Amino acid sequence: MPGIWPLVHREQARRLSDTLPGVHIPDEVIMTLPSRDGGLEVARAVGRQLARDLLHHIKAESMFPGAYLIAPNRDPWEALKTLNGD
After folding, report:
1. Distance between CA 72 and CA 79 in Å, rounded?
2. How much is the average pLDDT of 22-47?
3. Any bridge partners for residue 3, and if so which?
4. What is the pTM of this model?
5. Alpha-carbon distance 39 to 21, whole Å?
6. Rounded distance between C-alpha atoms, residue 18 and residue 31, angstroms
7. Which residue among 20, 27, 60, 72 has its CA within the 20 to 30 Å range from the CA of 9?
């Protein structure tokens, strides 16, 4: 079952992709995310939308029986914002 981590900003995505074994974030996705210098809330909103799009795609294509959402920075409210569309 895939884990979906709403990315917080471009630098985080690059670091995760470069340092976590088995994690690959395509460059197109990384470049879609704003830098944290461009405003953290804007970057988080883009990350939440990317996560929602991925969850919808997984559901629409019946690729997996489900997915789990990882709370970014251990913040469950960010996970809820992702699910609620905030």
Report:
1. 7
2. 91
3. 68
4. 0.85
5. 29
6. 14
7. 60
